[in-house]
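Reopening this one. Same input as before:
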Amino acid sequence: MLNIDEPAHLQPQIALFRLGFRPFFLFASLFSVLALGIWGGFLSGINLLPQSVNPLWWHGHEMIFGFVCAVVAGFLLTAVQNWTGQAGIKGTWLLGLFSVWLLPRLLLLMPLAIPFTLIMFIDLLFLPLTALILAKAVIRVRQWRNFVFIPILTLLTLMNALSYYGVLTNQFEWINIGLYGAVALISIIVALLGGRVIPFFTERATQWQRQTAIPVLEWLSFISLFGLVISLSLQEQILLRSMAGIASIVLLLRWHRWGWHACWRVPLLWSLHLSYVCIPLGLALIAFGLPLSVGMHAITVGGLAGMILAMMARVSLGHTGRTLQPPSIMKYAFGLILLAAVFRILAGIIPLWSASLLLAAITSWVIALGCFCICYGPMLCQARIDGRPG
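Same output, byte for byte:
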């Protein structure tokens, strides 16, 4: 793991703002617990949202652009330091970027007479600013391999804008295009990073020997997922199911070559492997013609949130100078987030039990992410235990 060394007096006084993963991992997780609690209240007949906010839009938007995108930004802002050797954003600049993310989350929850378009404008700044910071580091060292994240973040901004446009014009098809398109784009990020880190981590922690990637499989995975984005935007069902089916098969074939059979004794490994599998599972559900929301929730809850929890647990240990041994309770948290995905899938398939299954999914999520906040919150708010910067 690369660390950018610098004198201790140049490090921000507040450890929380010494590197991107710290504030975004912690507060995105806390926010997800709060947001799911509010959503659970709404489903139970208690609406805690301002009357001006559409609850259905808010739930989907805030879980994707409030929670998932914040963690993605925190990971990329941290990883780009390792990739390029350039010092990561920290201190006042990091606090500023974090504030741009946090402010819309708070304003959407407050019953204040603040123009919705102002909240939208602030929120739409976050991903482009993140992309700009990444692009500056990548271009400086001409590391074009990692430039791919810049257009993806730009397209995510477009999807965010489409979801806002749908709310402002009461055209719910645009909301779905924006939110579902964002899920597909984030799945591309997860597939790309998963292909890099899951085989690498598995090889380092087990006796399994990593295999050389097959270029055709790599390209097919990204082309099919991008085709999924296009089909979601066109709302063409035959194309959508075809792209989902192709992507599901290709992603499973890639995963099959990543040493999954050697991971079961290591929680930081099986959590990654099983979460990744939820993405092709969700795509398969879409391909087989189940309701789109069922497949998408398999991807978002099991795939994206599961991968996020596993990666946050690992990255937070490594970048705070600790050994890669998570608190023992985290293995139950990894299991609970996967169980939440099962409950959420079943809720869309068994209407009679839908309400109970939704609340079970929410409870599982809240406990899982709550465990992360309790176990990792102190680590993220304290300086590295080895005295190094970051």
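So the earlier flakiness isn't reproducible anymore. For the record, The mean pLDDT is 93.
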